[in-house]
Amino acid sequence: MDRIRIVGGRPLSGTIPISGAKNATLPLMIASLLTEETLVLDNVPRLADVGLLQRILGNHGVDVMVSGKRSGETADHGQTLHISAAHIVDTTAPYDLVSKMRASFWVIAPLIARMGEARVSMPGGCAIGTRPVDLLIMAIERLGAKIDIEGGYVIAQAPKGLRGGEIVFPKVTVGGTHTAIMAASLANGTTVIENAAREPEIVDVADCLNKMGARISGAGTSRVIIEGVAKLGGARHSVLPDRIETGTYAMAVAMAGGDVLLQNARPELLQAALDVLQGAGATMVSNNQGIRIARNGSALAPVEVTTAPFPAFPTDLQAQLMALMTRARGTSHIVETIFENRFMHVQELARLGARIQLDGEKATIEGVERLKGAPVMATDLRASVSLVIAALAAEGETIVNRVYHLDRGFERLEDKLSRCGAAIERLAG
Ligand code: EPZ
């Protein structure tokens, strides 16, 4: 298994190109199942999860063609996928595929909406929390699907198609909102979603669906209205920049010190995180190229942060912020309200000399003068990159094991950081 070796203590300077968003790309690729025509997606990141989803869609009969390199393009350019679900030959999403990536459960929405049937494996457990899918099932049931659970599979049926209805989510769920919007796009009648997730990725998917001929309004607010249509067409859509990748590199610069342009980044996609970083002592300037982030010599100030749905501070940046606060001058508090088991990085950060106390969903981080390199273990996608951030400021060598977690959501991380001066390399096998 690949590992990553980092020698800390070097400031970062230069440019980091921000890739397309993983958490928009996955639902956008799944939305291709809603139409017989071709969906073309630009700015698609080269990630393990994208590759796995290609296989999952292929199992339903979907063809995915990746455009070859165009003149003048570099590895910094996202890839272009031509996705055609002209013929869906199988409406089953098997356990051995779904269990590898939870978001693939969302195929249930376009399959039931377009084909009137779907048999999708329950995703199973996850390192960061129980993560049930009861609200996703509730959403399609509200649109008239008959649901049975059998042998670990959700069997959904709507032979006469779905019908519009009212969906009120008792808690904000990103996956539930994607599922409801996709299913309602082909339902007969109007659907109203209350307490919908407002994440930018929801807006990006709704924009793409509207290009395909859907009638969605209010995406990005907590009340979304969808007037169902009989058929959707093809479209071309460019994936929005990854706000979690943006926030991650911004924290890496704040940790290591230096001055970096995060190219293509859009501040409005992660304003809450940028405000926290400014409060911690980093400076930033946004322009049409992206966000320029710097910290030179000023001490890091402690913060008080609670994760919550957009537009609040995202849970997917919690681990990265915790790593940063291990070097703050003072004590920080971070409360994780979205996932009940998202502190797996705490013991690994402690191996580098961090001082972190946990009390239920609350973490107390007492800043230390120095961190010291050590071998550490990645446990999930965001926890693994928090170890990389800590290692950039730790004295000596850190080896991060099980980096396959990183490859799921960060494109060419070592290359992007080493181009800015970090001493980081991948050790194969
Ligand atoms: C999406 O997961 C993201 N994944 C997650 O990013 C992100 O952490 C999460 O939203 C929150 O922002 C993708 O977009 C692929 P939820 P999702 O439904 O949709 C509970 C990453 O690192 N819940 O908004 O699965 C759930 O357990 C990943 O890129 C139910 O109880 O998250 C959680 O406590 C990790 N029943 C809360 O709601 C349900 O049916 C929010 O989960 C669904 C969710």
Strand pairing plus helix content: what structural class?
alpha/beta
**For the residues shown, what is the average pLDDT?**
97
Tally of extended strands?
24
Ligands: ligand EPZ
- Low-confidence segments, given as residue ranges, are none
Strand order of the largest sheet: 22-23-1-24
Helix content: 25-40%
Distance between the termini: 4 Å
Residue fraction in strands = 25-35%
What best-fitting shape do the alpha-carbon axes yield? globular
Instruction: Tell me the number of helical segments per DSSP (H or I, 4 or more residues long).
Output: 14
Radius of gyration: 22 Å
Biggest sheet details: 4 strands, mixed
Give the topology, please.
Layout: E1 3-7, E2 12-17, H1 22-31, E3 38-44, H2 48-60, E4 63-66, E5 79-84, E6 92-93, H3 95-98, H4 108-115, E7 117-121, H5 134-142, E8 146-150, E9 153-157, E10 166-168, H6 174-185, E11 190-194, H7 200-211, E12 215-217, E13 223-227, E14 235-238, H8 243-256, E15 258-263, H9 271-280, E16 283-287, E17 290-295, E18 304-306, H10 318-325, E19 331-335, H11 345-351, E20 355-359, E21 362-366, E22 375-377, H12 381-393, E23 397-401, H13 404-407, H14 413-418, E24 423-427
Parallel strand pairs: 2-15, 3-14, 6-7, 10-11, 18-19, 22-23
Antiparallel strand pairs: 1-23, 1-24, 3-5, 4-5, 7-9, 8-9, 11-13, 12-13, 15-17, 16-17, 19-21, 20-21
